[in-house]
Amino acid sequence: MCVLKIEGFFIEHSTAYGSYYGFPKEVFSFLEEGKSYVGIVYIAGASAIKAYSQDAILIALGLLIGTLLNNG
Known about the structure:
alpha+beta; 18% strand
């Protein structure tokens, strides 16, 4: 098992193809410093991030791209 997963390093995490992937809690300290961050996560990960921080802004790229293509 991944040590970082055990120590609570990630807000959300999953495994795919034998590797661990996750969204680190540390990102929110960067945001508090005024820095921007773009993370690519699946819906379950987005739900976990939103539960962790109500201020998180989440954009569904599939919907955004479809809207741009249909209206552009």
